[in-house]
Amino acid sequence: MTETTKTHVILLACGSFNPITKGHIQMFERARDYLHKTGRFIVIGGIVSPVHDSYGKQGLVSSRHRLIMCQLAVQNSDWIRVDPWECYQDTWQTTCSVLEHHRDLMKRVTGCILSNVNTPSMTPVIGQPQNETSQPIYQNSNVSTKPTAAKILGKVGESLSRICCVRPPVERFTFVDENANLGTVMRYEEIELRILLLCGSDLLESFCIPGLWNEADMEVIVGDFGIVVVPRDAADTDRIMNHSSILRKYKNNIMVVKDDINHPMSVVSSTKSRLALQHGDGHVVDYLSQPVIDYILKSQLYINASG
Question: In this protein, which residues make up the domain named Cytidyltransferase-like (predicted)?
Answer without folding.
Answer: 12-106
